[in-house]
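Annex B. Sample input.
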Amino acid sequence: MARLTVNNQPLEFRLEDDTPLLWAVRDAANLTGTKYGCGTGECGACMVIVDGQAMPSCTLSLGEAEGRSVTTIEGLSPDRTHPVQQALVAEQAIQCGFCTPGLVMNAAALLARNANPTEADIAAALTNICRCGVYPRLIRAIQRAGRILRGEERGLPMPAPATSTAPGL
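Annex B, continued. Sample output.
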């Protein structure tokens, strides 16, 4: 039984200690934004932030995550206003979307360490595989997110919540 904090919530998983963290967050905690890609930690689709560091959740066991703080894409910014998310939209750096949660988590961890990364810094930190090939736009998006974090640029305006005039809604 592993105890850890997921998205600022203490959780206890009644799973074997060797269960990959990926399956614990997806299946037991119903946080399905974290994706399964390669199963070997090389593609980055399953990236989460553990104690401030981006890590592939498919190769990290529950036993290794015991007592640690884990942030998934759902916990990064529930309203999708994190500067990385805003910049990815603004730079049109999202295509199919499968790799996007892992890219966002890896970029957010990078920017938490270095809010002014060079292209080389980004290339070294983001080892995620994107089969759609958004890399040039991704680099621009991460640099834009850094400018937002540093206060040099404003984020995207958020739309007002949808309202309905239909009876009963």
